[in-house]
Amino acid sequence: MIEVKALSHTYPDSKEPSVKNISFTVPDGTIFGFLGPSGAGKSTTQNLMTGLLKVQQGTVTYDGLPIHKQKQAFYNRIGVSFEHPNVYGKLTGLENLKYFAGLFSVPTEDPVKVLDWVGLKDSADKRASAYSKGMKQRLVFARALINRPSILFLDEPTSGLDPATAEVVKNIIQRKREEGCTIFLTTHNMYSADELCDTVAFLNDGTLVAMDTPRALKLSYGEASVEVEHRQNGGEVKKEILFHAREDHRRRLKELIDSGRIETLHSREASLEQIFIQLTGRSLA
Amino acid sequence: MKPLKRYVVLFSQDALLAYRNGHVLVVAAIAVIMVLLVLFLPAEIKSGPGEYFLDETPGKPLAEALLRKGGNPDALCADRTELQKKLTDDKNALGVVISGSLENPVVTISKPKSVAEKSMNLLMATIDQIILAVGNPGAGEDLTTEYLRPRSESPALNLSGIPVFLAFEVGILGFLLVAVFIFQEKQEKTLRAYRVSPGGLAAYLMSKTLVFVALSVIYAAVVVVAGFGFSAPWGSVMLLVIYASTFMTLFGAGFAAWFHNLSHWFFPGLAILVLNMIPFGSYIFPSFNPAWVTVLPSYGLIFSLREALFPTGNADLIRTTLLTGLLWLAASTVFAAFSVRRKLMKGE
User: Of the candidates B2, B9, B192, which has its C-beta nearest A99's C-beta?
Assistant: First the structure.
């Protein structure tokens, strides 16, 4: 089990902490989704949890042992996929995986097989510098799987992927969970989180604003809402999501109806994005 | 066996990257240039005498004395016309005319160009010595010369550069290329992935060091074979090359860790390389050896390489350099480990 307690972090060049006193636990064999817009502190939290950043305040423990006391062998157990692809451009996709696999002192996957999982088998012998951004993203994801990790950290694994490829990646994530892998999924894609995660946590400006299962969050915060598209004075069409339970939103809806500028009006089911907007006043995108 | 596998894998990866980054090509190109210099530079540059003498004293005793002491007969002129012709033909030569008598000689030196004061003093002292010796046949006989070691022959011109080619090129290769390597990894951010693997600091440093030591050894072998064939003193030469390459690669890795990229590194890095090459001045002008130059690792290295390739019986110099080298290696390892851990392996 991963336990994060009262974790805070401030970068040297910044006055404000990027992560502010956050606490959560990730039970073994579950997918924990970390949702928030860009700059919310998601990647910083993942970097603190993997030891890439030194913990300044608070604790991160794995089965009770703090991250700073973990031996080098700890890294045999984890796989990390980064938001920004970081591969050796002068090596082929296969070489990138083959050499990385050689660093581990545990049984590793066959690199060709892993490339096949993510749809890169045909490009295995092509230099990574010739890969598209999406291909590099898949290569980084494949690299995270090479050591058969029991804990996976995935930072925006479907970012920049076409829907079909994103589906392939999501299927692999689900399969790893079924195999007992604990997965920490950082994303701003609410649909992926809703689909994959056992627990989701909302992070905004470095603070955890809510955390529960997607269903429980929807039950707690999900409110009936309408999506309104209306034409503004300048002629532009603007979309607004208005919640029935909020007095100011009801007033706004009436105002729009009275103005006669509404072009479309749809009722909406509660989504993680709505809940996030409701809690923070800002969008995930 | 597992950690050993890790070292082998990392070495293979870094060797492949060195090849694909063109580092191997750079080393090969430099080796070719050095081999061409060794093969095509003459063993010695033949030129006429630097000075022409005309002895106008009665009986020409000075000219005879010069010949007896092994002087070049071509340097002696019969009269002023011949002297003038030779000076016209060889515009860099000096003309020395000794007239008057042995008791009261008049020496005239004609200089076609500016000559270093040291050279002029040396020439004047030599002339004084000859005049004194001829005028006083017994003078100087109470002086004895004792050689501490057997006198060795001067190395051939084309071979004399080899210690320089080995000492400085190997150092530059290690120091510069490891920095290029590290900056590429910084740019590609591949170190972030390495840091969340069990790779570790020792394997990281060792694999890079081994790659550049291997390149240096191959480079040195090619240059030495070109100059000396296969019967060169391989043991001492290779130990010195391995020491130089290991030291400069480790120091270079530690140094590069403090900079963002090659542009940021360039001037401080260049300053280090220039500092490292200052002992080259001592090699060319042995009188230039201030204490601070003699403590530079490259100072002992270049003279030890010369001793290894052109032995004068001073094998202690090589032993001392290698033993002192162990201290330099320890210092560079600590520096590299500290810098790479602090700046590359740890987050802020």
Answer: B9
pLDDT digits (tens, 9 = 90+) for B311-347: 988 889 999 999 999 999 999 999 999 999 999 987 5
CA–centroid distance for A62 within its chain:
20
Question: Which candidate, B161, B341, B196, places its Cα nearest to that of B258?
Answer: B341
Structure token digits, residue A208: 């955890």
Over residues A21-32, mean pLDDT:
95
Do the Cβ atoms of B12 and A99 come within 8 Å? yes
Average pLDDT, chain B: 88
Q: How distant, in Å, are the alpha carbons of A85, A93, A132, A153, A163 from that of A160?
A: 11, 18, 10, 18, 9
Nearest CA in chain B to A129: B188
Count how many pairs of residues, chain A against chain B, have C-beta atoms within 8 Å.
83
CA dihedral A113, A115, A119, A122 (to 10 degrees): -100
What is residue A127's DSSP assignment? B
Q: Is A137 left (phi over 0), alpha (psi -120 to 50) or beta?
A: alpha
Q: Where are the domains of chain A?
A: 2-213, 223-269
Residue B348 has pLDDT above 50, yes or no: no
Q: Which CATH superfamily is domain A2-213 in?
A: P-loop containing nucleotide triphosphate hydrolases (3.40.50.300)
Nearest to B56 by CA among B33, B35, B81: B81
Tens of pLDDT, residue by residue over A184-223, are 999 888 888 888 999 999 999 999 999 999 988 887 776 6
Provide ipTM, 2 decimals: 0.83
Tell me the pTM: 0.80
CB contact under 8 A, B196 and A100: no
- pLDDT band for position A124 (cuts 50, 70, 90): very high
**Is B6 within 8 Å of A143 when comparing Cβ atoms?**
no
| Alpha carbons B137 and B190: distance in angstroms, whole number | 81
Contacts of A248 (CB under 8 A, 6+ apart): none
- Report the range out of A207-221, B76-90, B301-315 with the highest average pLDDT: B301-315
Closest to A215 in 3D by CA, of A265, A272, A266:
A272
Give the C-alpha separation, A119 to A130, whole Å. 16
